[in-house]
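User: I've been trying to design a sequence by hand for this structure and keep getting stuck. Would you show me what you'd pick, starting by listing the structure so we're on the same page?

Assistant: Good idea, let's start from the same input. This is the structure you sent:
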C-alpha cells in the first residue's frame, strides 16, 4: 500500500520561495510522480511531472519558477517553488501512478495515489 505525505507548506509573500516535500512509503514501483494544486472553487491542476529517470515536465503557469525532483533512495519527491505569485495560492498535493506514461496530458483521474495536501498561501 502506497502512502504519500506532504510537508513544507505555509505562507509567503509574493516573490518568495518555498520547498515542498512528499515522503512515500510502500514498495510499489511508481514510474510517474507529480504535483497538483487546487485553488478555492477550481479543479485540481497538474503543475509538474517527473519520471523515474528524472526527466520532467511543467505546466506553462509554473515553468521557469518551479522545479520538481525526486530522490529515489530516500523515497521523497520535492517541489522547489520560487518567484511565487498570489495566483499560486492553493492546496498542493503530490500524486503518483503505476502507469509508465507521465506528461502534462494526464489528469488527476490518471493518478492512483494521493497525499492529503498542504496549503500554500502567497500574499501580494
Amino acid at each position: 500500500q502506497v502512502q504519500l505525505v506532504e510537508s513544507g507548506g505555509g505562507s509567503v509573500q509574493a516573490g518568495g520561495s518555498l520547498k515542498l516535500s512528499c515522503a512515500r512509503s510502500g514498495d510499489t514501483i511508481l514510474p510517474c510522480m507529480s504535483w497538483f494544486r487546487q485553488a478555492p472553487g477550481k479543479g485540481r491542476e497538474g503543475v509538474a511531472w517527473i519520471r523515474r529517470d528524472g526527466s520532467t515536465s511543467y505546466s506553462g503557469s509554473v515553468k521557469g519558477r518551479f522545479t520538481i525532483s525526486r530522490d529515489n533512495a530516500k523515497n521523497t519527491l520535492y517541489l522547489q517553488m520560487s518567484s511565487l505569485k498570489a495566483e499560486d495560492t492553493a492546496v498542493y498535493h503530490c500524486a503518483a501512478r503505476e502507469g509508465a506514461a507521465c506528461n502534462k496530458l494526464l489528469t488527476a483521474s490518471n493518478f492512483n495515489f494521493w497525499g492529503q495536501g498542504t496549503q500554500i498561501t502567497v500574499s501580494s
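That's my pick for every position. To get oriented when you compare it with your attempt: The longest strand covers residues 18-25. The chain has a mean pLDDT of 95.
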